[in-house]
Amino acid sequence: MAEIIDGKKISQDIKDEVRDEIKEQGISACLAVIIVGEDPASQVYVKNKKTACEYCGIRSLSYELPENTSEKDLTELIEKLNSDDTVDGILVQLPLPKHINEDNIIEAIDPGKDVDGFSRRSVGALSIGTDGFVSCTPAGVIELLKRSGVEIAGKECVIMGRSNIVGKPMAMLMLRENATVTVVHSKTRHIEEICKRADILIVAIGRPRMITEDYVKDGAVVIDVGIHRIDPEKNNGKKLCGDVDYEDVEPVASYITPVPGGVGPMTIAMLMKNVLKAAKDR
Ligand code: GUN
Description:
The structure is a single chain. By secondary structure, the chain is of the alpha/beta class. The protein has two domains: 3-134 and 266-281, Rossmann fold (3-Layer(aba) Sandwich), CATH 3.40.50; 136-262, NAD(P)-binding Rossmann-like Domain (Rossmann fold, 3-Layer(aba) Sandwich). The chain is built from ten helices and eleven strands. It has helices at residues 7-24, 40-56, 71-82, 102-108, 120-128, 136-147, 167-176, 191-195, 246-249, 264-281; strands spanning 3-4, 30-36, 59-65, 89-92, 156-160, 180-184, 200-203, 221-224, 228-229, 240-241, 255-256. A six-stranded parallel β-sheet has the order 1-11-8-7-5-6. Strand 2, helix 2 (40-56) and strand 3 form a beta-alpha-beta unit. The longest helix is centred in the first third of the chain and has 18 residues, at 7-24. The protein is globular. The chain binds guanine.
């Protein structure tokens, strides 16, 4: 029987800490959120980010641009926000429409306002261990582990997935916490064998319920970054699942994150923390 890591509660604690600090120190913080096009999932994420800002006492500016917005027009908006002293953080919701180069857009954001931690400067700072913004989802995983009392130093950590948003920064953060880190991906051979060595297994592969107990050592800590919509009629009324087959893995793990209510709510809580950092650093 695993202990369930309650991401809903931990993310609420973090938002409360941000809210208290903003209130007690009279900090004024502002996040500009840009969305291009009408992807329904992105619209929900952006709405949730604005709601969290309101809760924490952070002002939020919202730019909802049409699908056919040009890269030039988007860049000009970012430059305007870069030079606006009342704006602390700028977030461009990804993915962007295909005709816009995401890399160019991320690099257009002032590194001091890059609250997503996606820019080259932020990634470089993380990689050499200097101060900077850290990508919200992996930073949230570290908070979940620490606030649940999981020791990281000296542990074997296996990360499944190598994306720029989760896998790669996750590896850097676990190294910073003195874990021994292995990253596995679609081309890795003997993947089950490697995962079974992990004291801490972090799964971000984007495949519903792929990870069964065959991948998990007895007593391992299992963190599930995946989230997928599923048909409730075929899944005992459940609408969402992760990359981990929860029912199969839970009996062998020592700690596990549920989906929903595990890693998901942490991303926005860490974004609020990054906006507060941006406001304090400026
Ligand atoms: N799309 C999916 N996750 C994210 C995120 O963390 N930040 C942004 N900007 N876009 C995303």
